[in-house]
Write a structure and sequence with these properties.
Structural class: alpha/beta
CATH superfamily of the largest domain: P-loop containing nucleotide triphosphate hydrolases
Helix content: 10-25%
Bound molecules: guanosine-5'-triphosphate, magnesium ion
């Protein structure tokens, strides 16, 4: 499915159903008093948060959403049925902006969170409402009110705890496959990943928590200015709590040394947004299966000294190292939560 993180839609809520004029009849006697019921409220248009989608692409084939009108009131004081709501599922991290005044209407950040963007019209009153000691045969009812209409822009900034940032081919997607159940494509050519992917390290069954990891397309020098694919997707690192820089010194697939890779990556984040640059980070030295252990240890130390952060070794063929990375993800998040 296409990755779409920006979409314009219009929403028209249902009109309220009209009340009616009716009078009770019994055994040939007419006009025994009013019994015209109220209409039903019009259906509203809601957005609801779901982790099922990581893109807005499922809303792409229809840009105009309508909810159903409320039904008319009935005889015997019966109220008309409510119009059916129209519920649109959106990924977590969706911001809703009114296109008319560019005001932010809200943001969906949690599973099941609901936001009404167009409220259904209020129902009309049936003549039963107008009965009084002076008016026994009211010939009055009201129509339902129109539903709200709005044009909005939906903008998605993926919500993830940890963002994987690295050069193309560094092994981000391979690592995400090991860390989580996600199955992003892996290839020995740059820009295999062209859309951000999310994976979850889920330890809830073991009494732990869960951690969402975002694998964004490879970044290169100049990404912040639009080079490669990086620019469009850097924004998806914005909402992460922590960045994991993943570097590959050994496969000959990346022209820069690991230290230089981190320097360039950090520089690109800085150029894109100071906020992103200031986020806590750790480094993953990847593909250590391709060198002697001593060499990997030495480079690990060098990276640690230079960037003053946690540095972990990794290779997809060693589950112990993968486990250590998972633990570091949770440790880093916990530290952030505690505000160190
Ligand atoms: N030897 C070795 N190769 C690896 C390891 N991890 C990934 N690779 C290889 O590195 C290449 C790139 O892997 P990907 O996971 O597609 O890299 P990526 O960073 O997601 O690349 P882009 O999506 O293009 O940015 C593939 O040929 C992988 O098989 C590892 O731990 N050891
Ligand atoms: Mg990839």
């Amino acid at each position: 499915m296409k990755f779409i993180d920006d979409i314009k839609i219009s929403a028209l809520a249902g009109k309220g159903g009209p009340g009616i004029i009716s009078f009770r009849n019994s055994k040939g006697l007419t006009n025994l008093g009013p019994d015209g019921g109220d209409g039903g409220n019009g259906g509203s248009i809601y957005l609801i948060g779901t982790a099922k989608h990581n893109t807005l692409a499922h809303l792409d084939n229809n840009r105009e959403y309508k909810a159903k009108p409320g039904q008319s009131g009935g005889v015997n004081g019966r109220t008309g049925a409510r119009g059916e709501d129209c519920i649109l599922e959106v990924p977590l991290g969706t911001r809703i902006i009114n296109r008319e005044d560019e005001q932010l209407l809200g943001e969906i950040t949690e599973e099941g969170q609901k936001l009404v963007i167009a409220k259904g019209g209020k129902h009309g009153w049936g003549n039963i409402r107008y009965k009084s000691s002076v008016t026994r045969t009211p010939y009055k009812c009201t129509p339902g009110l129109p539903g709200e209409e709005i044009k909005v822009k939906l903008e998605l900034n993926l919500l993830a705890d940890i963002g994987l940032a690295g050069f193309p081919n560094a092994g981000k997607s391979s690592l995400l496959r090991q860390l989580s159940k996600a199955k992003p494509q892996v290839g020995d050519y740059p820009f295999t990943t062209i859309n951000p992917q999310l994976g979850v390290i889920d330890e809830r069954a073991m009494g732990g928590t869960s951690c969402v990891i975002a694998d964004v397309p490879g970044l290169i020098e100049g990404a912040s200015a639009g080079e490669g694919l990086g620019h469009k997707f850097l924004k998806h690192l914005r909402r992460t709590k922590c960045i994991a820089f993943i570097v590959d010194e050994y496969s000959q697939l990346i022209e820069h040394k690991a230290v230089k890779q981190v320097e360039i990556l950090r520089e690109e984040l800085k150029k894109f947004s100071e906020d992103l640059y200031q986020k806590p980070f750790f480094i993953i030295l990847n593909k250590v299966d391709l060198v002697e252990q001593g060499d990997a240890d030495e480079l690990q130390k060098q990276l640690k000294d230079q960037f003053n952060c946690v540095v972990l070794q990794s290779t997809i063929i060693d589950p112990t190292l993968i486990r250590k990375i998972q633990n570091e993800c949770f440790r880093a998040l916990n530290e952030i939560k505690l505000g160190y």
